Each structure stands twice: as structure tokens, then as C-alpha cells.
Amino acid sequence: MATIKIKQIGSPIRRPESQKKILIGLGLGKMHRVVELEDTAEVRGAIKKLPHMVEVVEG
What we know:
Blueprint: E1 3-8, H1 17-26, E2 34-38, H2 41-49, E3 54-58
Antiparallel strand pairs: 1-2, 1-3
């Protein structure tokens, strides 16, 4: 299956609890951390909920 690299570019400080939980679910939580996940609909949906906090580094 294809993979996708996601980098956290926004801080979870002063964000709603739901956004913090999405970050933790993606394996993020600290600034500039990069994780590699499978490219699934669930991961893409989580990225769309946090466009101000994460970016796709590599497609």
C-alpha cells in the first residue's frame, strides 16, 4: 500500500481537545515531527480536519 509523510507545522496549544486527539491519532503531538502512514481515506480525512496544523511532505 502507498504511504504518505505528514509533518506537524502548528502547535496544539490553545486548540480544541478534538484537534489534539486527531494529532495524537496521527502519531504527532510535537512541532516539526514527521510520521509516515499508509495512504488511506481515514488518514486523508484527518489531514483535511487539520489543514492549519499539518502538511503533506511527500505524496
